């Protein structure tokens, strides 16, 4: 939760329905949360997700990630979601 990009990723993941999300969609949403002055960094967001964030979230059993299909499934965690909701409120990132 201390890393901004991972926190933003969790903001998106905790809002998902049970069907999951694809890497490109998650990267787009992450880039939108990070956007400044109408400039987005989708390529940077996708690389970050593939190389850093998703492996960490897989290691702590929060997501399943299939690199072949680029499908991501978030496993609900009520106590984490409470922290994520609080952080999103504090950062004013409750709607995107």
TrEMBL record:
Pfam families: DUF7344
Organism: Halalkalicoccus paucihalophilus
Record-annotated DUF7344 domain positions: 2-72
Highest rank taxon of the organism: Archaea
Name under which the protein is recorded: DUF7344 domain-containing protein
């Amino acid at each position: 939760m201390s890393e901004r990009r991972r926190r933003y990723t969790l903001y998106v993941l905790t809002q998902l329905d049970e069907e999951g999300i694809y890497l490109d969609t998650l990267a787009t949403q992450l880039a939108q949360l990070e956007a400044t002055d109408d400039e987005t960094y989708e390529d940077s967001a996708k690389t970050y997700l593939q190389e850093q964030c998703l492996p960490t979230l897989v290691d702590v059993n929060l997501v399943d990630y299939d690199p072949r299909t680029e499908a991501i499934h978030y496993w609900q965690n009520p106590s984490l979601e409470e922290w994520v909701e609080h952080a999103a409120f504090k950062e004013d990132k409750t709607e995107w």
